[in-house]
């Protein structure tokens, strides 16, 4: 099967190169964790802190995955845990992973 594609142009190469360089810079930022103090204060793991948290614009209600306290958010990309439970258990409030990615057997 032959798929018709437009010829590759220098603009295509420049745009894709720029996008890939941006991705590499973002990965370096994740590995370097330059905002570690703020990230820990916000009780988030590295990936949740530096990656995009785009969600729909709607008031959303959910419950904490540990204590079942009701939480509210201004968008649909909600946290799994309340900040207090996340802090007490050293977990990411957004995804529930260990905040330092350590293997665990218990909460």
Low-confidence stretches: none
Helix content range: 25-40%
Q: Report the sheet with the most strands, covering strand number, pairing sense and barrel closure.
A: 2 strands, antiparallel
Strand order of the largest sheet: 1-2
Order of helices and strands: HHHEEH
Strand content range: 5-15%
Structural class: mainly alpha
Describe this structure in words.
The structure is a single chain. The mean pLDDT is 91. The protein has helices at 10-32, 36-41, 46-50, 83-89, and strands at 60-63, 70-73. It contains four helices and two strands. It is mostly helical. A hairpin with a 6-residue loop joins β1 (60-63) and β2 (70-73). A two-stranded antiparallel ribbon has the order 1-2. It has one domain (10-89).
List the helices and strands and how they pair.
Blueprint: H1 10-32, H2 36-41, H3 46-50, E1 60-63, E2 70-73, H4 83-89
Antiparallel strand pairs: 1-2
Short description:
This protein is 38% helix and 7% strand. It has helices at 10-32, 36-41, 46-50, 83-89; strands at 60-63, 70-73. A two-stranded antiparallel sheet has the order 1-2.
Features:
single chain; 107 residues; mainly alpha; two-stranded antiparallel ribbon; 7% strand; elongated
């Amino acid at each position: 099967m032959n798929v018709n594609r437009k010829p590759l142009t220098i603009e295509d190469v420049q745009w894709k190169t720029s996008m890939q360089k941006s991705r590499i810079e973002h990965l370096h930022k994740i590995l370097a964790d330059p905002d570690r103090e703020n990230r820990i204060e916000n009780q988030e793991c590295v990936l949740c802190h530096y990656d995009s948290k785009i969600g729909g614009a709607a008031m959303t209600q959910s419950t904490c995955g540990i204590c079942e306290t009701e939480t509210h958010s201004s968008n649909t990309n909600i946290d799994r845990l309340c900040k207090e439970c996340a802090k007490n258990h050293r977990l990411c409030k957004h995804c529930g992973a260990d905040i330092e990615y350590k293997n665990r057997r218990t909460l």
